[in-house]
Specification:
Chain lengths: ~550, ~425
C-alpha cells in the first residue's frame, strides 16, 4: 500500500485493484464490500424463499418433502435476518454515508471497521458451510430443545451467527464513538441529520443487545459440543430461558433493523418533498425512545410459552406503548409530505411504499400484542405476514430506497431511472400480493412452518407464490441494473437530488478522505436556496446548486 | 501500522468537537497518532470512549450467565447450598487476591506510562502478566481436580461421593478410591442395582438412628471388553473397622476415619440411593480408577437397636417422603448439611450448579487468557519504547479491561464459593 494517498482524487481511483480493496481502511470501500456481500446474501436468501413458496404452491409434495422444506425456511430466515437485514442499512449504507454526513474523514476506528467486515465474511462462510453440510432445520430462532437434538448442521450455523453478532457489535461501537467524537464543532446534536440519530439509536441497541445473543449462542454451542445442560430439560436445564435470552436480543434486533430504515426514510422524504422535515426533534427523540423501549417487550414472543399471567399482561401493555414512538414518526413524515413539492423519483417511490407497508406492519403488531388475540394468531401465517411487512416491506424497501438515493454519490453513476421506477412498483405490488393473503390465511388458522396444508388455503398460497416471483424478479433486476450502471450508467453530478446534508457537498464520488477542503457548514433541510440545474454534465444529469434565492427572506434555521 | 492508508499528508481535515480548534496542522507528535484524528488527545478520547462501550458490551455478555445463575438459584437453592461445598474456598480466595494485585499493577502501569517511567512500566506489566498466569494456574489445579473426580457440568456430571462428605457416589460404580455396590441410574434417578430389597421398613433417616446392616461383599475381577467381558476372578472383602461401634454415625465415618484394612466395605444408608435400606460401599483408600472390577453385594439389615426410651414410647408414625405432612430434616450446621447429602448422589440436577460454575469461570478464564495476550503485546511495545506521556492509550484501555475482568471475578467468588 502506498504511504501517501492523494485526497484530491476519488476514492475509487486511488489505489485500484482488488488487492488494495481487501485491505482497505476506507469506510466507503468497506461499505461497498459489505454491499456486495449483502446483495449476494440477499439473492441466496431469496432463492431459498422461492423454493419455499414453490413447495407451497399446492397442497402435498411439490418439489421436496418435510425435512428439506424445514431446511429451506430455516436457511431463508437465517440468511435474511443475520446476513442481510441486520447489517444491511448500518453496515453497508451507514458505513458509506455516516462519516460523510458528519464531515469526517473516516469512522473513529477504521481497522475495527475492516475487522467487522471480515467477521461478517466469517459468519457468512460458516452459514454457507452449514448449507454445505446438509442444512439446518431449527428455524432461524434456534429454539431449544429441538436445536439440541436435531442431527442437522447446527454448530456451524450457530457459530456463524455468533460471529455476525460481533461484527454488528463492533460496527455499532465504531458508529457511537464516531458520532460522539467526530462531529464538527459547528454541528450540535440537533444539527445532525436524522439518519445519524437513527444510526446512533441503532448502534446503542447493537452494543447493548447483541452480546446477550452472543452468550446465548455460545451456550447453545457448548451445549451441543459438550452437553453443558443450561438449556437442556433432560439435564435439568430450562429451554424457556433460551427463549427469554433469544428474544431479549431479537426483539431489539427487529429495531436494529427498522430504526436505521427510519433514518433513511427521513432523509429521502424531506429531500424529495423539498420541505424541511416536520418535527425534527420528535423524530430524533422517538428513535432513542424506540431503542430504549425495545428492551422491555421481548416477552411478547413468549405469550404462549408458559410465561406467567402477570408477565404476559405487563409485556402486552409495554408492547402497545412501542406503537407510540413509531406512530409519532409516521405522523411527522406524513406532515412533511403535506403541501410538499413531491418528486416521484425511484428513492421516493420506495419511501412512499415504506410508509404504507410500515403502517400495516406496525398496526398488525399491535393486534398481536393483544393477549387474547395472540393465542389464536401465534405461530400462524398472520405472524409471518406481520414481520414480513416490517422486515421486508419496511426495512428492505427503505434499504433499496437508500441504495438508489446514495448510489450516484458513492458509485459516481446514475442508475437507469425508468426501469428503476418499474422495479419499485414491481416490489410494491409483488410484496403485497405475497403477504396480504398471508394475513387472511393466518387469521383463518393456517399455521406457519408447515409443509402441507388443507385445500381450502390453496388460493391464498397460490397468490402468495405468484407475488413472491414478481417480487423476486423485480429485486433481481435491481441488482442487475445497479451492477450494469457501475460502468455504463450516466455520470452522476455532485447533488443530483437536491439533498441538503453534507454528503451532497462532497465531490461525487467522494475523495479518499471525503472532502478535499474542510466542508462548509450547511443549512440542514433547507431547500429554498437550492436550485435545479438541468443538463449539468456531459451526460445530461441534473444538479442542484446552492445559491441564495433572489428574493429570499432572511430566515432562521428551524431548529 | 504506519503504512496504513491514513498515514499520509493532506486530507480535508477540520476541527472536531470539544477541543475548540487550534490543531489544524498535521504535525502529530507521536508516530502512533493515526491520521484521521485531529491530535493525540482526540485519538486518546476516542479510544477511551470506545473501550467504555466495549466494557458495556462485556458486561451484557456476562449478564446472560448471571441471569441464568439467578434463575437456577432461585428455583433450586438446595443445589447451590449443597454443591458449592465442592469448591475450594482457599483457592478461590487466593485467586481473588492474585487478581486484585494484578489490577493494582495494571493501574500502576498506566501511571508509569504517563510519567514516562519506562522501567516501572515494564515492571508493572510483568507483574500483571505473572499474576494472570498465577490465576490461570490455580484455576488449572481446581479444574483438574474436578475433572479427576468427575465433578463436571451438565451431561458430563459423573461424580463420586463417599460417605463422609468428600466423594460422591459414582453413578456407574467407577469411583476412584471408592466403589459401591449401588448402581445409580441418572436418567431414571434411582438405584437400579445393589439396594437392599427386603421390606425392612426402615425410615429414610435410619442411618442417623444407627441402623446396622451386614453385607456379603465380593470384588469381581473382570476381563475382556464389550460382550466378551466376563469374570476372571473374585475375592471377598471384609467390613471396615468401625471406629466406635454403636455410634450412630459409624457407617458414615468412612471418610473421616482412614480404613486401615483396605479394601473394606462400610454401610451406606441413603434414601436417595436406596429408599428401603442400606447398601455397601467399598473403600480402597487410594485414588486409582478401577475399571476392571465390579462389586457384588448382598446386604441385610440388622434390626435397629431400640433405645430403651423408645420401647415405651411405642411406634412413632413418621411421614415419609412424598407424604403431605412430610418435613425435611432440620439441618443444624454445615457439618450436618454435608452429612445430610453426602451419603449418596447429590440432589437432583446438581449438575446445573457445575454447568453454571464452569460456564462462568470458563468464560472468565478465557477473558484472563485474552488479557495475557494483550499485556504481552503491550510489554513488547513498552520494551521497544513506544509509549510516551503523549501516547499511552493502549495501556490505559487494557488496564480498564483488566479491572473489569477483576471485578467480574469479585462477583463470581462469593456467588459460587461462599454459599450457605
Ligand atoms: C410497531 C411495533 C410492533 C409491534 C407492536 C410488534 C408486535 C409483535 C408481536 C406481539 C409479535 C409476536 C407474535 C407471535 O409470535 O405470536 C411479533 C412478532 C414478530 N415481529 Fe413484531 N412488532 C412490531 C414491530 C416489528 C418490527 C419493526 C419488526 C422488524 C423489523 C418486527 C419483527 C417481528 C418478527 C420477526 C416477529 C416474529 C418472529 C418469529 O417468531 O419468528 N416487528 N411482533
Ligand atoms: Cu418482538
Amino acid at each position: 500500500m502506498s504511504a501517501s494517498l492523494d485526497n484530491t482524487k476519488s476514492y475509487l481511483e486511488v489505489n485500484p485493484g482488488w488487492r488494495n480493496w481487501v485491505v482497505t481502511l476506507d469506510h466507503k470501500r468497506i461499505g461497498m464490500m459489505y454491499l456486495c456481500g449483502i446483495l449476494a446474501a440477499l439473492m441466496l436468501g431469496g432463492f431459498f424463499a422461492l423454493l419455499v413458496r414453490t413447495e407451497l404452491f399446492s397442497p402435498g409434495a411439490q418439489i421436496v418433502h418435510q425435512d428439506w422444506y424445514n431446511k429451506f425456511f430455516t436457511l431463508h430466515g437465517a440468511v435474511m435476518v443475520f446476513l442481510v437485514i441486520i447489517p444491511g442499512i448500518p453496515a453497508a449504507l451507514g458505513n458509506m454515508v455516516l462519516p460523510i454526513q458528519l464531515g469526517a474523514p473516516d469512522v473513529a476506528f477504521p481497522r475495527l471497521n475492516l475487522a467487522s467486515f471480515y467477521l461478517w465474511c466469517g459468519g457468512a462462510t460458516l452459514l454457507l458451510l452449514s448449507v454445505a453440510l446438509g442444512g439446518i432445520d431449527t428455524g432461524w430462532t434456534f429454539y431449544t430443545p429441538y436445536s439440541i437434538e436435531t442431527q442437522t448442521a447446527v454448530l456451524p450455523a450457530v457459530s456463524g451467527a455468533f460471529l455476525l453478532g460481533f461484527s454488528s457489535i463492533f460496527t455499532g461501537l465504531n458508529f457511537l464513538v464516531t458520532i460522539h467524537k467526530f462531529r464538527p464543532a459547528s454541528m450540535g446534536w440537533f444539527q445532525m441529520p436524522l439518519n445519524l440519530w437513527a444510526l446512533y439509536a441503532t448502534a446503542l441497541m447493537q452494543v447493548l443487545a447483541t452480546p446477550v445473543l452472543g452468550i446465548t449462542l455460545l451456550l447453545l454451542f457448548v451445549e451441543r459440543f459438550m452437553q453443558i445442560g443450561i438449556f437442556d430439560p433432560t439435564l435439568g436445564g430450562d429451554p424457556v430461558l433460551f427463549q427469554h435470552f433469544f428474544w431479549f436480543y431479537s426483539h431489539p434486533a427487529v429495531y436494529i433493523m427498522i430504526v436505521p430504515a427510519m433514518g433513511v426514510v427521513s432523509e429521502i422524504l424531506t429531500t424529495f418533498s423539498r420541505k424541511p422535515i416536520f418535527g425534527y426533534r420528535f423524530i430524533a427523540y422517538s428513535s432513542i425512545a424506540l431503542a430504549l423501549f425495545s428492551f422491555l417487550v421481548w416477552g411478547h414472543h413468549l405469550f404462549v410459552s408458559g410465561q406467567s399471567r402477570l408477565a404476559n399482561m405487563v409485556f402486552s401493555a409495554l408492547t402497545f406503548s412501542v406503537g407510540i414512538p413509531a406512530a409519532i414518526k409516521v405522523f411527522n413524515w406524513t406532515a412533511t409530505l403535506y403541501k410538499g413539492d413531491i418528486r416521484l423519483e425511484t428513492p421516493m417511490l420506495y419511501v412512499l411504499s415504506f410508509l404504507i407497508l410500515f403502517t400495516i406492519g406496525g398496526l398488525t403488531g399491535i393486534f398481536l400484542a393483544v393477549l387474547s388475540i395472540d393465542v389464536h394468531l401465534h405461530d400462524t401465517y398472520f405472524v409471518v405476514a406481520h414481520f414480513h411487512y416490517v422486515m421486508m416491506g419496511s426495512t428492505l424497501v427503505a434499504f433499496l430506497g437508500g441504495l438508489h438515493y446514495w448510489w450516484p454519490k458513492l458509485s459516481g453513476r446514475m442508475y437507469p431511472e425508468t426501469i428503476g421506477k418499474v422495479c419499485a412498483w414491481g416490489v410494491f405490488i409483488g410484496f403485497n400480493l405475497t403477504f396480504l393473503p398471508q394475513f387472511v390465511m393466518g387469521s383463518r388458522g393456517m399455521p406457519r412452518r408447515y409443509w402441507d396444508y388443507d385445500p381450502e388455503y390453496t388460493l391464498y398460497h397460490r397468490l402468495s407464490t405468484i407475488g413472491a416471483f414478481i417480487l423476486g424478479m423485480s429485486m433481481f433486476t435491481v441488482v442487475c441494473y445497479l451492477a450494469w450502471s457501475l460502468k455504463r450508467g450516466k455520470k452522476a453530478t455532485q447533488n443530483p437530488w437536491g439533498g441538503s446534508t453534507l454528503e451532497w457537498v462532497a465531490p461525487t464520488p467522494p475523495t479518499v478522505f471525503n472532502f478535499p477542503e474542510p466542508p462548509p457548514e450547511v443549512e440542514l433541510y433547507e431547500y429554498d436556496d437550492l436550485h435545479e440545474v438541468e443538463n449539468a454534465n456531459q451526460d445530461g444529469v441534473t444538479n442542484w446548486e446552492r445559491r441564495p434565492a433572489a428574493n429570499k427572506p432572511a430566515r432562521s434555521s428551524h431548529h | 501500522m504506519s503504512s496504513t492508508e491514513h498515514d499520509k499528508a493532506g486530507d480535508g481535515h477540520h476541527d472536531h468537537g470539544d477541543d475548540g480548534g487550534g490543531h489544524g496542522g498535521h504535525g502529530h507528535g507521536s508516530p502512533w497518532i493515526q491520521h484521521h484524528y485531529d491530535d493525540a488527545q482526540h485519538q486518546f478520547d476516542s479510544g477511551k470512549l470506545g473501550i467504555w462501550f466495549f466494557l458495556v458490551q462485556e458486561i451484557l455478555f456476562f449478564a446472560g450467565l448471571f441471569v441464568a445463575y439467578i434463575v437456577y438459584r432461585h428455583h433450586h437453592p438446595e443445589i447451590f447450598a449443597y454443591a458449592s461445598h465442592y469448591l475450594d474456598v482457599k483457592w478461590g480466595a487466593i485467586n481473588t487476591g492474585v487478581l486484585i494485585v494484578s489490577s493494582l499493577s495494571a493501574a500502576w502501569a498506566v501511571r508509569c506510562a504517563q510519567l514516562a517511567q519506562r522501567r516501572g512500566l515494564i515492571a508493572c506489566l510483568v507483574i500483571t502478566i505473572v499474576c494472570a498466569f498465577g490465576f490461570l494456574g490455580i484455576k488449572f489445579i481446581e479444574y483438574s481436580h474436578k475433572i479427576h473426580e468427575g465433578i463436571l457440568f451438565g451431561g458430563r456430571f459423573d461424580p463420586c461421593v463417599a460417605s463422609g462428605g468428600d466423594h460422591l457416589l459414582n453413578k456407574a460404580n467407577r469411583c476412584p478410591g471408592v466403589t459401591s455396590s449401588v448402581v445409580w441410574d441418572v436418567k431414571a434417578k434411582k438405584a437400579t442395582k445393589g439396594c437392599l430389597d427386603a421390606e425392612t421398613g426402615y425410615d429414610w433417616d435410619a442411618g442417623a438412628k444407627g441402623i446396622q446392616g451386614k453385607c456379603q461383599v465380593a470384588e469381581v475381577k473382570m476381563g475382556g471388553r464389550g460382550a466378551s467381558r466376563a469374570e476372571v476372578g473374585r475375592r471377598t472383602i471384609e467390613a471396615c473397622a468401625a471406629p466406635s461401634a454403636g455410634d450412630g454415625h459409624a457407617e458414615m465415618a468412612g471418610h473421616d476415619t482412614p480404613a486401615h484394612n483396605t479394601p473394606c466395605w462400610s454401610l451406606v444408608v441413603n434414601p436417595h440411593v436406596c429408599p428401603k435400606g442400606p447398601a455397601a460401599m467399598v473403600h480402597y483408600g487410594d485414588h486409582t480408577k478401577r475399571t476392571d472390577i465390579e462389586i457384588e453385594a448382598t446386604c441385610e439389615a440388622a434390626p435397629a437397636p431400640v433405645a430403651p426410651a423408645d420401647a415405651f414410647a411405642g411406634t412413632v408414625d413418621r411421614p415419609g417422603r412424598g407424604d403431605a405432612n412430610f418435613k425435611a430434616p432440620q439441618v443444624q450446621s454445615k457439618h450436618d448439611a454435608i452429612h445430610e447429602w453426602s451419603n449418596g448422589p447429590p440432589p437432583e440436577h446438581t449438575n446445573m450448579f457445575f454447568s453454571i460454575y464452569f460456564a462462568m469461570t470458563g468464560l472468565h478464564g478465557l477473558h484472563v487468557l485474552f488479557g495475557i495476550f494483550v499485556f504481552i503485546w503491550l510489554l513488547v511495545r513498552a520494551i521497544k519504547g513506544h509509549f510516551t506521556p503523549d501516547y499511552f492509550g493502549p495501556i490505559d484501555y487494557a488496564a480498564l479491561y483488566w479491572h473489569l475482568v477483576d471485578l467480574i471475578w469479585i462477583f463470581l467468588f462469593p456467588l459460587l464459593y461462599l454459599i450457605h
